[in-house]
Sequence to fold (368 residues):
Amino acid sequence: MLIPILILLATLLVLVVMYVVDDAVRVLNARAGLPASGGMRWSKRIVWLILLVVFAQFFIPSTWLEPPPPQVATYGADSLWTGADTTRLVYLPKEQRDLVRYGRELIANTAHYLGPNGVVMRNTNALNCQNCHLDAGTKPWGNNYGAVWSTYPKFRARSGSTETVAKRINDCVERSLNGTALDTTEREMRAMLAYMEWLGSGIEKGTKPKGSGIVELAFMDRAADPVHGAEIYTAKCESCHGADGLGQLKADGRTHQFPPLWGDGSYNDGAGLFRMSRFAGYVKTNMPQGVTWEYPQLTDEEAWDVAAYVNSQRRPSKDITGDWPDIAAKPVDHPFGPFADTLPETQHKYGPFGPIAAFKKKQTTAAP
Fold:
């Protein structure tokens, strides 16, 4: 602030001197009978312009003069990833800014745009991406997008191929949203890609920030119990998601205030949350509504059991015959055979998962 003040004072001094000199020259010319000259008219105008520019600095917001802050995620080595600051969007080029904002809107209100009564297309179920990826994919341990842009493309054993971010998004569209894959050239896909790229800015390639994804719960020594899970559901979940699990509609009658957990409007049996470990880890740190990973309400066993109850209910089915071409790579809680071990399908769905994990470890150790 000191430098602009000094420049302002110096400019004022120069301007005063110029006026004094100009007046003196005019008087001398008049006394000598010489014609009046143009004086320093243009020089004074230039100094006035400089003066106005310097003076304006005291009233122009500092953000207009400062370089835009880096578009980086807000996390450190000892903190949780929470996504980039949305106020920084104003520094992006308009086209990119609009695309990122539309992508965020699609994540938060998917059903409004793409759902059964979608205003853009009718392609998905009653869920929003945000129902599984909380706070538009930015909540720590809320199945967030913190590691998406930094870790893709990557090989995924479920498809047996290297997948792009667009392929991963369409996997969610086809499974969690029970719809059909989006055209990757459409604005909706480009917007979601732009949003995820922006969220991933500042994260080094190959890095997975702390707080990304879902918390991994330790396996229980017993199978998850859907009967006990029903009791937990009634006590902790029913008030929002309903006794019938179909959620609660908003006043507009088009979208949900609380999403359906089963039935035709929910995720199908090919979705990631249909696996017990994924659902249990998700509800442990995020449900009932309002809890955080620091202050959960459910015990680990309650989380496992309510996962067993919810995932025992009727929901859409998906053809997953092409999944896991290497059956040995199937997760311990993938509930559909064939399997590399001889343990029953019910154990692969409900557990106990420890023996399955031990078998997988033994097979891996024995492999040449």
